[in-house]
Predict the structure.
Amino acid sequence: MAIGETQNEMHHQAMTNEGLMCVRRLRDTINDKCIVRVPNGSKELPSLDGQGYYTWQFYLRRVLLDAHCLNLICEDFWNRFEHLFKLEPFQLAGVESAAVPLMTAIIIDGARRSLDINAFTIRKDRKTYGLRNLIEGSPSSRPVLFIDDLTSPQHNAFWHAIHAISQSGLKLNGHGYVLVRKQNADACPVIETSMGRVKIDSLFTLSDFSMTLEDYARENSGRLA
């Protein structure tokens, strides 16, 4: 079993049956309502680089703005990182705007646990007026844990965050947390950077979903059978 798969298997084994049911419901919500799929050959989803077209794409705001989903994500986050935070306090950082509701929920839930958690956000582009700042908020000297809705070693937002954190003279704590790691479960969850390794923890990977239109149709036909 690969590193990424082992990590989530061990974490899920520690969850209660009720918790696993909630994770399953969240998975189904994402699978049914937060992934846009089109047939092969469709030109409905232009790629970011303008050189091709996607056959699927995540749109996770539906769950990142839902109180029940955020409660579950916060529970998962602090189950993974509360002990580490108490040993080696860290701060959170993420790129606007997808990371903002997730970070806000984690901060509020941390306060309920009497955890003094600091955070800041990273703009996609530096302001062109005023202070011309790239970072919003007040970074502390604590090492940084990266937060986003999803990421992968190819994800632009991750590398933008690494650049901003490095340019600010801050350090990483070696961890990141996302709702979906955009890799299959058997892919290594560690991303190598000039600032050190970042191990990405996540509730889900691509292996948890029916990514193509064909796979989704097969899953739905199975439900109806």
Observations:
- The CA atoms of residues 22 and 72 lie 7 Å apart.
- The chain has one domain: 3-224.
- The longest strand covers residues 172-181.
